[in-house]
Every structure is written in C-alpha cells, then in structure tokens.
Amino acid sequence: MKKTESLESFYKDKFTPYDQSANSGKTQFAIVTNEQCSNGAKISYRRHDFYKVSLFKGRVLLHYGDKSIEVNGTALVFFNPDIPYTLDMLEESNFGGYLIFRESYYNDYYKNGIRGLTLFANGAKPVFMLNKTQEKLVDSIFKKMQADLLTDYEYKHDVIRTHLNELIHLAMKMSPLDKVYQFVDAKARITAIFNELLDRQFPIESPSEEFEMRSAAAYADKLGVHVNYLNRAVKSVTGKTTTNHISDRITTEAIAMLKHSEWNISQISYSLGFEDPSNFSHFFKKHTQQIPSSFRLLK
Fold first, then answer.
1. In which element (H, E) is residue 295 found?
2. Which one, of 148, 69, 21, 66, lies nearest residue 54 by Cα?
3. How many angstroms separate the CA atoms of 101 and 117, rounded?
4. Which of 35, 73, 219, 261 ranks highest by number of CB atoms within 10 Å?
5. Is residue 243 a contact partner of residue 181, using CB atoms and an 8 Å limit?
6. Which residues pair with 33 in a beta bridge?
7. Which burial class, exposed, middle or buried, applies to 178 when counting CB atoms under 10 A from its CB (0-12, 13-18, 19+)?
8. Molecular function terms in GO for this entry (predicted)?
9. DSSP state of 118
10. Mean pLDDT score, 97-110
11. pTM of the model
C-alpha cells in the first residue's frame, strides 16, 4: 500500500544533505533550493501533511480548485494542505526552490496560528509576482534558511521561523496575481484536480482514521463547484462517473489493506467509511466477485 508522503520521508528520500533531526522523528521543516530541483517536468503531488511556500522562476501553469493561473516571471506561491493542486512547467525554468513545514511548526510558536493568515486560507489567491528587488530578497531568505538548517545551533528553528515570517509578511503587503489562465480545458482541469484530491485521501494509516469523502458532493464542495458540473466534467473526460472513480479507489485501497496490513476486516471496513463489516463485504464482493476473507487468504 502506497504510504503517505510524510515530512520525514519527503525530506530524507529526496535531499542530501538533510536535517539530521529527521532521524529522531522531530523534523517539522524542510527546504529545497534551485540546485535540488529538476526542470522542465510536470510535477504532481501525493497527499501531504504540510504547508508549502514555493519560489518559481520562468513559466509555470498552476491549477488549483477550479482555476488555472500562468506564472511568467518570478513568483512566490503559498499552498495549504487542504487545497489540491497540480503544476505544469511550460518551459525549462530556473526553478527557485520551495520550503515545507507542518502546521505545528508554526502554531506552537505563534498564538494566532497559520490558519489565521489570509495567505493560507481556503479560497485565497496564492500567487505573488516579485520584482527584481523582491526576488533578490527572497533568494537571500531561502539561502539563509538552508544554511541555518544545516547548522548545529540549538535555536536554529527559531531563526528559521523568523525568516518564514519574513516571507509571509512580504507577501501579505503585496497584491496577489489575479489573472486567470483562459486557455485550459475546464473539464480536464477540474477532473485532474478531482483525481488529485481523491488521491490525497489515501492511504489510511491507522484504524482510528476514517475515509469520509465518499460522495461526489464532498469533492464538489471542496473544489468550489456544483456537484452536477463535477459529475459532467469527470464523465466527459474519463468516461466514468465520479462515483465510479471513488468506488474504484476504495476497492483498490481495500485490496491493499487486506494484502499488506494486519488490520482485521472490521477495522478495514470502518476505516474506509462503512457503517459495519457487512456493508463493506457487500461492496467488496460487488466490485471484486470475492468476499474479503477469501481474498485475504490469497496472500
């Protein structure tokens, strides 16, 4: 079963050198600079449990919610874990880098909390274009953060949080980019974002977690579109209904849990949002022609 990309695995797997505190499970912050980014490729994201601040240089097409925005130049972009998005690199770019951090990394030190900031609010416009002076300043802040992260200084994260706040307040003094990109197939875009949002719901990592977004209406609400529009768009692009996609994904995750976890069938059924194991068994047999217990014996 594909694992959620935790901050520790995201950081350790992709970047060298990395903050050695990752080994202790305490990593709350990571940063990637231009030299560690690959250019000219489409980037997609799995489910994340962290906030992200990106510095883009070049032409990038950002899809989020029901909108697409083209960045042409240098931009500072803010993402929160609740909003699904995808990126297309439109040309080989001098990609500036990005930083990621957990909500607790900020909230444990600032009483107002990260969700109180307009930059990270659902529905906020996330893109801020930089002039040459601002670009130079942001480049400098990113480099300071990376340098501080690699030191042994006991209070380095206090310094890093100060730099993070500097980026946040720099953007809050500016006006966000508001020009929506008009040349994207709207149905294809919303379908891609729907698939991204569905993908973010998995895997279920603990029997105490529950998959709640089982209806098309739940995704439409999150994406800010009418459920009928979402259904028509997804069916038009993929040939399958929104409900079919959700059911297929539940089935895939159920199979993975049965094959690769030690959870009992009751735990699996509740974690996937079923009211009781009998409902889960009926659903599973409908989609696989097997009952869960017999499938588990195939391991």
1. helix 292-296
2. 69
3. 15
4. 219
5. no
6. 97
7. exposed
8. DNA-binding transcription factor activity; sequence-specific DNA binding
9. G
10. 89
11. 0.59
DSSP assignments along 120-179, one per residue: GSTT---EEE--HHHHHHHHHHHHHHHHHHTS--TTHHHHHHHHHHHHHHHHHTSPPP--
Cis peptide, bond prior to residue 207, ω within 30 of zero: no
**Structural domains of the chain ordered from first start:** 7-172 (2.60.120.10), 186-296 (1.10.10.60)
94-123 CB burial, b ≥16 within 10 A, e <16: ebbbbbbbbbebbeeeeeeebeebebbbee
User: Is the pLDDT at 294 greater than 90, yes or no?
Assistant: no
- Among 50-54, 137-141, 196-200, 226-230, the range scoring the smallest mean pLDDT is 196-200
Q: Which helix (H) or strand (E) holds 87?
A: strand 85-89
* Nearest residue to 29 via CA among 142, 126, 121, 157: 157
Give the span between the Cα atoms of 134 and 33, in whole angstroms.
17
Summarize the confidence of residues 108-124 as an average pLDDT.
82
Q: Which amino acid is at 99?
A: L
Bond from prior residue into 292 cis (ω within 30 degrees of 0): no
Residue from 215, 216, 214 nearest 231 by CA: 216
d(CA 35, CA 80): 24
pLDDT of residue 210: 87
Compute the Cα dihedral for 287, 293, 296, 297 and give only its sign: negative
Which pLDDT tens digit goes with each residue over 40-63?
434 443 445 688 999 988 888 887
Give the orientation angle of helix 242-260 with respect to helix 216-223, to 10 degrees: 110
Q: How far, in Å, CA of 150 to CA of 63, rounded? A: 33
